[in-house]
Amino acid sequence: MGLKRQWVLLCPVLSKQPPLPVVRLRGLPFDCSEADIVEFFHGLDIVDVLLVRKNDKFTGKAFCVLAYPLQVDFALQRNKQNIGRRYVEISRSKRQTYYKAIANEVSDSEGCAPHRSASRAKSSDDGKDSAEHTWVLLLKGLPFSAGKDDIMNFFNGFALSENLIHITATSEGRPTGEAFVEFASEEDSKAAMERDGMTLGNRYIELFPSSHEDLNATVSRAGNYFFY
């Protein structure tokens, strides 16, 4: 299906954030795709897949972010199972390790086509602290059944308009678990960051400062569209 994500009153302190439900995979076939990993974890809710590359070549390693911590235990039960002819090693990972892999990928992609969008590149705790706040926030980890009403309830107390909430989906019409929200002011978007790490349904939501440029770039990126 292709999970291409091309990711104070500011961000809460890292130690206060819930652990990121992420696992690391090793020993993947070198022709492995994000869709193969999603299929490997069939039955689990996948928020993101990061294929680790070096010098633009796949290393056989990947990170997979799940919808909530309990699913990590289920993912670990698939340790040593096969993708193709190779068995895959699965282990727990840390938020910092995952974000470092993102930063390395962005750095490695300098001078060539990047594998992730600008919004994904900002998906680190340092990025949250240092990113310039505009009127736009990017939400990650949404329940796939979440609609605009759910997002408005999540941000209860802020003046939001339904036509300024943009929920993304794949070209097959399947929600990606991400959305952009345009607030009434920069001050509102900063204040809304206090809800980073809070839950919507049975998932916790990560918030990232974004921009209209990121939003427009996602609109134009092949393979994604918005529910309006």
TrEMBL record:
The organism's taxonomic lineage, starting at the top: Eukaryota, Viridiplantae, Streptophyta, Embryophyta, Tracheophyta
Organism: Actinidia rufa
Pfam families recorded: RRM_1
MF terms in GO: RNA binding
Domain RRM: 135-212
Annotated region (Disordered), positions in chain: 109-128
SMART domains the UniProt entry points to: RRM
Keyword Repeat among UniProt keywords: yes
Keywords in alphabetical order: Repeat, RNA-binding
Top-level taxon in the UniProt lineage: Eukaryota
Listed Gene3D superfamilies: 3.30.70.330
Full protein name: RNA-binding (RRM/RBD/RNP motifs) family protein
